[in-house]
Amino acid sequence: MPSATNINPLNNHQKTVYTVTANCQDCYRCVRVCPVKAISVRNGQARIEDNFCIKCGTCVRECPQHAKTIRSSLDLVKDLLSSKRPVAVSVAPSFAAIFDGWRATRLPYALHKLGFKYVSETAEGALLVTEETLKNKNKGTICTACPAVVNYIEKYRPEYTDMLIPVVSPMVAHGKLLKKRHGKDCAVVFIGPCAAKKLEAVRPENADAIDAVLTFTELIQWLNEERIDLAACPEGNFESYGNIDKARLFPLQGGLLKTGSIDCDGTNADVMHISGANDVIGLFEIPPSDWKYSVVEPLFCSGGCINGPGISTDKNIFIRKQNVISYAEKSTISDRDIDRAISSRALFENENISLSAYEVDENRINQVFEATGKSDPKLQLNCGACGYESCRDNAIAVVKGMAEPEMCIPYMRRLAKQHSDRIIETTPNGVIILNNELQIMHMNPAFQKMFICNNGILGRHISYLLDTNGYEKLASGSVKLYEAIKSKNGKKYHELLYALPDESQYVGLYTDVTKIKFDDSQIDLIKNQTLEQAKELLDHQIKFSQEMAHYLGKSTARSEELVMRIMDLFEE
């Protein structure tokens, strides 16, 4: 079984889809959305494992940092155009989704201006593929127009390989049509919305069809670079053959069935069209023995090719769909028919590189759980923050070298807490934590040593041990931070107190300053404390004089406490 460590190390420019590492922000979104978990994380960087990738381009569409990108073929196409060979362009019917209305009629001229000699619609190939698919229904039941679906079956559902209808995609069929029409020396460039087409074009069996593939994103970039404004281009027509009005609907879900005039309104028991990774993967979870369909048209991108990763637009997908339908309704039909005397036979492989769980030893999965503190099933939260559906899936990926334990957010939070706990336990400063009743919840070793106490006083009120003046001010809300230098049992200490409102707790930080010679600011702090407490004493006595006699006992005790504080401050 291949693993992340024995994959052929192709460089980024040879891969169909790759990571721009400088843009990757370690968010794991690509791991989360990748339908086949073909993205590994090493040293905090997400990488696309080419052998596992089916080139669906989901990560390209979903990455918020644009760290996933489709390999550019612009230089290759420009080289073809600068050669002496004639170059034809096959434009996928999904072009109408983004080049809508008047733009669709200007695009042929713009493509000629870029240097293409022949400008044609891939819908010609779609028409031919539909006819051949219907002829070959006895050889399979799964339509093969979508290369990402074909890649998925070849790699992950090999039991369905024999059920693929052996017909090439519209791109390949049209490439062969154009080369036959314009001569073998003619180069053919396909422009469409798909990343998987770039890999499909270089399959050995398709060597006589397509010379290069561009996405619509690359086309728009190229038009901008050449400063070709569609609004300034004259109207024109594609040099297309055949009655391709319905075939122009091919990029929509159910487009092939529509082209073939096969009714499928969603209630058919044996005919179905689906789109989107989840539906495609769910469909092929059906055991082949339970397969009841005579024809299934699956497209990997949700909504069809109009939502491919090579379309860079913010336009609503339903508007895109309307644009394609509108173009198909208004476009003309050629009086020249397509030449059907070409080979449309497709070949499929059985790669079977499934990453299923049974391939990993259970002991190694448990070792990962133990290392990440998740041996107890109750601690396996299955939160999905790492990008995997469950903690078990993540552990399997770790064993296979596809993931790192550090991708587990709860695990990293526990580590961070342990580190902070370690810091608190080893700091030379005293730390104490009280609850909202000013009862002692925790004392670190330095605090216990400073005030000669132990955990036996946990739960007691802080007044059992220290002056509570600062804590009472925090509790009353009169201050948010309290700082003082005080003394107890011949020891001077610096006290810094603050509240944790969300936790309803108070934290005290204590530093032994007995042997430290105070500077001016510290002396000022003591003076201010003394004055503050003296004022508090005066205010209390004034108030006392206004109170009734039954308060006498309580006021006397309070006065005594305040005087004792002042005496303590000057004790040393």
From TrEMBL:
Where the record annotates domain 4Fe-4S, the positions are: 364-425
Q: What is its EC number?
A: 1.12.7.2
The GO terms this record gives for MF are: 4 iron, 4 sulfur cluster binding; ferredoxin hydrogenase activity; metal ion binding
Do you know which InterPro entries this protein is assigned to?
Answer: 4Fe-4S_dom (IPR007202), 4Fe4S_Fe-S-bd (IPR017896), 4Fe4S_Fe_S_CS (IPR017900), Cytosolic_Fe-S_CAF (IPR050340), Fe_hydrogenase (IPR009016), Fe_hydrogenase_lsu_C (IPR004108), PAS (IPR000014), PAS-like_dom_sf (IPR035965)
Record-annotated 4Fe-4S ferredoxin-type domain positions: 15-43, 44-73
| One Pfam family it belongs to | PAS_8
Q: What class of enzyme is it?
A: oxidoreductase
Recorded hits in Gene3D superfamilies, A to Z, give:
3.30.70.20, 3.40.50.1780, Electron transport complex subunit B, putative Fe-S cluster (1.10.15.40), Fe-only Hydrogenase (Larger Subunit), Chain L, domain 3 (3.40.950.10), PAS domain (3.30.450.20)
Q: Say yes or no: keyword Transmembrane helix present.
A: no
Keywords assigned by UniProt, alphabetized: 4Fe-4S, Iron, Iron-sulfur, Metal-binding, Oxidoreductase
The name this protein carries in UniProt is Iron hydrogenase 1
